[in-house]
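User: Can you recover a sequence for this backbone? Please restate the input before giving your answer.

Assistant: Of course. Working from this structure:
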């Protein structure tokens, strides 16, 4: 393995071990590791990657690791980054699935997760501030960002908001420029999968196809994943709803992508082989989407129309992160303990040079201490 690939593997394996808090937090930690510390690319280009990743199916933060790996070490870097980021969550989830199947309950980790959540808020806020400075290039983009923030808080689907912002911004800036240019239109091709829905008994092949389908069409949060898996597994009698809820919970409180839920469910249904094929199935489309999309991103900047679209989507993506931060803060900062941890994490993030990973660790320990002592 060459030096760049080794560096990619180390960075994303470390992130995979400590990336709690969902896609917004994961991307914030990547921004710190890749832009601040290692300067693998410009913040403008990092924003372009965020914007385009939000428009394709699959787990956004996992696909961002693949894009970053591609930029650092080419196509091998894409696969090394993605696998390194996914692997820790997969191993942890598989172990928890074994304990769950054997003993029927999950380990008590709530105090640690309690402390991680407010710490993550400070990390996301820092990333929004840095990315927002780059994304906001004009008064018009500020207006687009405010509109997206408003509709996101009102519950409008984030993909609808992002696409609408892209179209609105493109039309406005094109009319404003009144410039005729030769346009190279890039049409992304999306994978459409059809799977026989009459599954009588599960097999590793059918399990793989179920999760391949979900990975190819999944947009949104863990709640959307819950809806898809409920339709694919619970309604067919392959899994009870309480088992699915436990599986989603595992994905939420383990580091890395929430799609590691697939490992847990796969193990429940077909043991180790089921865990393996379910994990491979749900993440495979993301590798393919990024592999196809990444080479076109620099070309998109060369087209005036697509540049307008990217600028608008990028500011919209920052606005969506801000909406996520607002909702998370509203749900998290409800007791003095969580507020205390958030304030300490904010001080660490904005006033010291301590890395985001240590901020997560400190938050977890504070959560355990405050809940145990008080």
């Amino acid at each position: 393995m060459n030096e760049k690939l080794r560096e990619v593997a180390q960075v994303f394996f470390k992130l995979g071990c400590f990336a709690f808090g969902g896609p917004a937090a994961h991307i914030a930690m990547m921004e710190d590791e890749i832009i601040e510390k290692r300067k693998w690319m410009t913040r403008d280009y990092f924003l372009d990657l965020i914007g385009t990743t939000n428009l394709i199916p699959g787990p956004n933060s996992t696909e961002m690791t693949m894009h970053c790996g591609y930029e650092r070490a080419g196509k091998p870097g894409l696969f090394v980054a993605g696998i390194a980021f996914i692997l820790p969550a997969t191993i942890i989830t598989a172990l928890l699935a074994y304990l769950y199947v054997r003993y029927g309950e999950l380990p008590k980790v709530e105090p640690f997760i309690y402390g991680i959540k407010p710490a993550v808020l400070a990390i996301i806020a820092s990333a929004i501030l840095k990315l927002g400075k780059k994304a906001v290039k004009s008064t018009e983009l500020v207006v687009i960002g405010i509109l997206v923030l408003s509709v996101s808080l009102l519950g409008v689907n984030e993909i609808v908001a992002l696409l609408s912002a892209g179209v609105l911004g493109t039309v406005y800036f094109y009319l404003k420029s009144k410039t005729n240019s030769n346009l190279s239109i890039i049409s992304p091709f999306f994978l459409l999968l059809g799977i026989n829905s009459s599954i009588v008994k599960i097999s590793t092949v059918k399990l793989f196809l179920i999760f391949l389908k979900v990975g190819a069409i999944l947009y949104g949060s863990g709640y959307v994943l819950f809806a898809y898996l409920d339709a694919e597994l619970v309604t067919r009698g392959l899994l009870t709803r309480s088992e699915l809820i436990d599986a989603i919970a595992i994905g939420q409180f383990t580091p890395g992508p929430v799609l590691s839920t697939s490992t847990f469910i796969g193990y429940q249904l077909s043991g180790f082989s089921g865990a393996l094929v379910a994990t491979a199935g749900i993440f495979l489309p993301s590798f393919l989407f990024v592999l196809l999309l990444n080479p076109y991103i620099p070309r998109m900047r060369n087209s005036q129309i697509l540049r307008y679209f990217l600028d608008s989507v990028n500011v919209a993506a920052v606005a969506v992160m801000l909406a996520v931060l607002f909702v998370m803060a509203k749900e998290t900062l409800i007791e003095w303990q969580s507020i205390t941890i958030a304030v300490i994490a904010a001080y660490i993030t904005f006033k010291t040079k301590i890395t985001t990973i240590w901020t997560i660790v400190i938050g977890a320990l504070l959560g355990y201490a405050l809940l145990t002592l008080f």
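That completes the design. The mean pLDDT is 84.
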